[in-house]
Amino acid sequence: MLNKISVIGGDLRIVKLVEMLAQDGYEVYTYALEKAESIEKSKKIRKCKSIDELFEIGDVIIGPIPLSSNNIQINTPFSDISITLDELFSKLDNKIFIAGNIKQEVKAKNVKLIDLLYREELMVLNAISTAEGAIQIAMEETIRTIHGSNVLIMGFGRIGKILAKELQGLGANVYCEARKDEDLAWIKAYGYNAIHLNELDNYLNNFHIIINTIPNLVLDEKKLNLLNKDCLIIDLASNPGGLDRDNAKKIGIKTIWALSLPGKVAPLTSAEFIKDTIYNIFKEL
Predict the structure, then answer these.
(1) Which residues have CB under 8 Å from 213's CB, separation 6+?
(2) Is the pTM of this model over 0.90?
């Protein structure tokens, strides 16, 4: 029976996850989280003095989400310890490694890699936090109420669907852009205004807020020049994002690239989602 879990690095979501795992009765061992006061003060959580000590304990290692921001070191915002990906991966022999956005090739032997950000249940639940965070930014960064504003959502995936629902509940005039006919049909069925990407230029000067979820360049220089200058663009897409930020700045359009919102706006709830997903993984294993 699995009763020991090792955790290395991570942000506030991982700190809260560690606390929850310990509360649920797991023996939790940590490394590179020494600046998290709640962990340092807890007598239930074991603090390892070295990475080798951590890897000697259990078969399951939980890492950061995302694992790395620069493809060199793992993310350790609660530590001064620098751990390279090469060092981490060299110690993963015969381990189950769970983290987020694992892009690098692992050359260790008999390793089972599980990327949390490919788990559908976590992606759906994270979309809730992302949507709420985007709406919070919109409220803080505009001089209008959401109610009555013309809001365009670019993309109708998990985040787009939840955003549209929440914004409609706040009284926004919700427009959703999509390419697929089936998505456009669902947009209409939900009572939103549907716009095909090919027709987007005809509508761009009407919007007060645009929230992009598409991780490809959609709002290029031509489209940006069609916007009202007081339009706010919130880009939720991962690198390289969905708009030409340099030209937006030259034109004078306010843009906010809002990445990793679940960990910033709702770390406790996000940790609960992560814990539930990890428990699902344990049942599958």
Answers:
(1) 153, 154, 155, 157, 159, 160, 163, 236, 237, 242
(2) no
